[in-house]
Amino acid sequence: MPEAVRKPREEESDQAMTKDELKRRIFEAIDRRADEIIGIGERILKNPEMGFKEVKTAALVHETFQRLGLEARTGLAMTGVRADARGHAGEGPTFALLGELDGLRVTGHPQADPATGAAHACGHNAQVAGMLGAAMGLVDAKAFDHLAGRVALFAVPARRAATSSGVRHRSARASSSSRAASRS
């Protein structure tokens, strides 16, 4: 939890909140949604998708962000989804919470998709559910009213495919080229 907990003005002292109280409220909010969070993880587990093809999972993340009132950007690195939430207590650090969307090709896995062989044998379903659960807790506890800075919630596609196929390298080179072009 960031140290940047809002310091209330004198007239707001009845709303003063310690870091421990804020954490307690966030944890309680997450606990109240435990069944929903577990359900999201199970839904993703039962519908695995290979890298850069995580259309259903990305849609689930986007819909969840929308229900929470978070404005999301989609189609990042093909299927990625990101929502940023700013604290209302001013400038501060940016924290990123990530969840990986892709499954692995594990033909023969008991929960593998029969058509693609994709399975969440790696726990990415739990990562995404955890990231969304954290978002739920922060929003439900109204934590952003008391925090400074920003939280970037990012469902990322195909980390393994990007690493092994050189996509990351080409993206980095394109970013370097665009930065160089903007300096000229």
- CATH homologous superfamily heading: Zn peptidases
The number of distinct helices, counting runs of at least 4 residues, comes to 6
Question: Between the first and last Cα atoms, what is the distance in angstroms?
Answer: 40 Å
Rg over CA atoms, rounded to whole Å, is 19 Å
**Biggest sheet details:** 4 strands, mixed
What does the model show?
The radius of gyration is 19 Å and the shape is elongated. Residues 6-14 and 164-184 have low confidence and may be disordered. Helix 2 (34-46) packs antiparallel against helix 4. The protein is of the alpha+beta class and 184 residues long. The protein has six helices and six strands, in the order αααβββββαβαα. Helix content is 44%, strand content 16%. The strands form two sheets. The protein has a four-stranded mixed sheet with strand order 1-2-6-3, covered by helices on one side. The protein has a two-stranded antiparallel sheet with strand order 4-5. The chain has a single domain, classed as Zn peptidases (Aminopeptidase), CATH 3.40.630. Strand 1 (72-76) and strand 2 form a beta hairpin.
